[in-house]
Amino acid sequence: MKRRFVETIALALLRGTAFAVLLATILLIGSIVRGGAGVITWEFLSATPTEGMTHGGIFPAIFGTICITLLMIVMALPLGVCAAIYMVEYAGSSGLARVIRASVNNLAGVPSIVFGLFGVGFFILFIGRSIDRVRGGGLLFGQPAMLWAAATLAVLVLPVIIVNTAEALTAVPRSHREASFALGATRWQTVRRVVLPQARAGILTGSILSVSRGAGETAPILFTGCAYFLPRLPIVHLGVPFTGLSVPMVNPLDQFMELSYHIFIMATQSTDAAATRPIQYGTTLILVALTFILNLAAISLRVRYRRGLESR
Amino acid sequence: MKSSAMVTPRPAREAVSNASPAKVAFGGVSFSYPGRQALSGVTLDVPERRVTAIIGPSGCGKSTLIKSINRIAEIGTEVKVEGRVTIDGQDVYAPGVDLVDLRRRVGMLFQKANPFPKSIFENVAFGPRIHGASRAGDLDQAVERSLRQAALWDEVKDRLGTSAMELSGGQQQRLCLARVLAVDPEVILMDEPCSALDPISTARIEELIEELRERYTVVIVTHNMQQAARVSDRTAFLLNGQLVEVDDTETIFTTPADRRTEDYITGRFG
Ligand SMILES: Nc1ncnc2c1ncn2[C@@H]1O[C@H](COP(=O)(O)OP(=O)(O)O)[C@@H](O)[C@H]1O
Ligand SMILES: [Mg+2]
Question: Is the pLDDT score of A92 beyond 60?
Fold first, then answer.
């Protein structure tokens, strides 16, 4: 009888917590949608902020977020995947490999503001200033810029990508590696032709999820490149030689606006924070939607590949 | 019993009955994993174009013995090897041995069929591809020849593009055999290849082994005494990492020289 009673209580508690989480999510999303949906118009998405950010749109922040996210992926993904391949397929279980593994795991738990400070110290003051010194002719690299902000974010998501990729690689059965080696394949051929094709789905989904985490971060870009307000997009026009034409290109050395930072400054730095409230909601909604799209992409990839794996 | 097997019992160990020269030879081989010696002082000749069966209780070192030939046993672990393992007289543990070439010459079939989650075609073409074949005509030819040799061609010729994972267990094991044959090995190692198969699939594999012995040197580990008796010319009995006895299969199963061999094949232990 007593056991039965405990069982019932336990179930009720567990169910209760599950519902609490669900409720919190619904309330959160609900309030964002309720507050933000009304603001979202084509103008909001395509215009620049005006009148001390109490009017106008958030296009530069959307543009900046997308640029920096893409740049971050370009920097972090190849590096993270290669590091994981080395760790799982080559390093084995040597002492060095264990040290690397432990530090990667620890790095994944470091607060993001620490990465922000690291970005300033390492990328801007050390690398950037060094480049400037060698180059001569004043400050160009040694100041906050999209390049350094993206690099900082890349360092932030790198351990997460490594851990996810390593997990996907480890999931490939040992018997497949053995079969490949037994046929005379080298380690690299085994990785390329047997391990990676099977781990691809896991690597991609894990990476997208880690990227979607990085895309919403404010602290790492706080000091490394994002701007309070920028009346222009971070774009340069590069002349194509001999044609007289010029093509617009994202300028990674420029500063940029970014969604989460935009929300932060509207809420805390604005002279009239109350007047920016609807725009804050709208901006939050867009940020959440972008993250959601990334997650959706990850899920659909996973489903597609899982189905593909079975029938291939 | 087939082949040149002699009927008269012969003294153990020294018995080297057949005209066939040794393709693979173990000379006083001891093999250790970290903290565990798996083989001690094994001396054994594997005759060319014959089927040699390795029998013995679980954990006695059968897998280690055959995996030491293609040097798969050392993957992912530290090992210590003493003595000599040779193929055609060449030491496979000599410094500078080309592992890729060694493993091309020595194919292996595992206990559980392990096709890649790729198409049937890609599974068989895997070996030729990694060894440099790329012309579509060559690949098609190699795939068809190997699948025919593995008696799988008629069952799969209309669906070479479908996943190997859709085949039955027996078909998967024959696919793995085709995958091995596609790289033109000289020696084929089989580690309990039928232990996960039903009797009919097992019989088909056994028929295949019968055909393979005309062109290849086969070493098969098996837990099944009848299978060893059916398919092999020579049988080696391994116990606790030591070779107890090796002789013509018929001799081993009728008049073994060692008491322990007799106990094992009659089911008194193991
Ligand atoms: N990778 C390994 N690392 C450590 N010990 C191993 C490894 N593989 C096998 N062994 C040990 O070596 C002995 C022989 O194993 P194995 O050759 O697989 O025997 P069998 O195939 O006859 O069952 C066993 O005691 C086993 O535990
Ligand atoms: Mg075994």
Answer: yes
Superfamily of domain covering B22-114+186-265: P-loop containing nucleotide triphosphate hydrolases (3.40.50.300)
Query: What is the three-class DSSP state of A184?
Result: coil
Q: Domain locations in chain B? A: 22-114+186-265
CA distances from B102 to A79, A310, B113, B218 (A): 34, 33, 22, 15
- The tally of CA atoms less than 13 A away on the side-chain side of residue B221 is 23
A37-311 CATH choice from 1.10.1790.10, 1.10.3720.10, 1.10.10.10, 3.40.50.2000: 1.10.3720.10
Say if B100 is an interface residue toward chain A (CB within 8 Å). Answer: yes
What is residue B25's predicted lDDT score, i.e. its pLDDT? 96
Domain ranges within chain A, ordered by starting residue: 37-311
Does B114 contact A at CB distance below 8 Å? yes
- Residue B106 is predicted with a pLDDT of 97
If pLDDT is split at 50, 70 and 90, which confidence band does A165 have? very high
Gap between the Cα atoms of B202 and B227, Å rounded: 9
Bridge partners of B246, per DSSP, are B236
Which of A180, A181, A183 should one mutate to test binding to chain B, selecting the residue with the greatest count of B CBs within 10 A? A183
Q: Ligand 2 center to residue A93 CA distance, Å?
A: 24
B126 and A310 within 8 Å at the Cβ level: the answer is: no
